[in-house]
């Protein structure tokens, strides 16, 4: 439902490397790069933007936000989580089913370099057992 959204990043170089890594694990790449803002997505459409907090209009207070990226399956959620931890992210919740959200909701949560709560989610997971 969300067309696109963006966040400000305090450590621009660290954030670019982090998002290249974790979004790459989900199949997303840089679609546009304006040096002070980068849009990630697929097929030429940037859906998620990061901006250098110290650059012009992007400057301002940075607050934690939560956002979720769609994953193709539970393996992609795991790949995202592993990539995030490998890139230095703090684990908030390891990959698992979240039945309190809805049946089949499988997600993993990490904190990015700027303290944002990010998630990869697959909505069609089957319960084990």
Automatic annotation (TrEMBL):
GO MF terms held by the record: lyase activity
Listed InterPro entries: Glyas_Bleomycin-R_OHBP_Dase, Glyas_Fos-R_dOase_dom, VOC_core
The keyword Lyase belongs to this UniProt entry's keyword annotation: yes
Classification via Pfam families: Glyoxalase
Transmembrane segments: none
Xref: SUPFAM superfamilies: Glyoxalase/Bleomycin resistance protein/Dihydroxybiphenyl dioxygenase
Domain of life: Bacteria
Gene3D superfamilies linked: 2,3-Dihydroxybiphenyl 1,2-Dioxygenase, domain 1
Record keywords: Lyase
Domain VOC per the UniProt entry, residue ranges: 1-123
PANTHER family registered for this protein in UniProt: GLYOXALASE FAMILY PROTEIN (AFU_ORTHOLOGUE AFUA_5G14830)
Protein name per its UniProtKB record: Lactoylglutathione lyase-like lyase
């Amino acid at each position: 439902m969300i067309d696109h959204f963006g966040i400000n990043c305090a450590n621009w170089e660290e954030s670019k490397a982090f998002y290249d890594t974790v979004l790459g694990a989900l199949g997303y790449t840089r679609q546009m790069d304006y040096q002070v803002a980068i849009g990630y997505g697929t097929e030429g459409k940037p859906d998620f933007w990061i901006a250098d907090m110290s650059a012009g209009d992007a400057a301002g207070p940075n607050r934690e936000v939560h956002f979720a990226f769609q994953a193709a399956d539970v393996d992609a959620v795991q790949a995202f989580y592993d990539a995030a931890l490998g890139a230095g992210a703090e684990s908030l919740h390891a990959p698992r089913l979240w039945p309190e959200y809805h049946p089949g909701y499988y997600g993993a949560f990490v904190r990015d370099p700027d303290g944002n709560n990010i998630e990869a989610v697959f909505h069609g997971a089957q319960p084990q057992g």
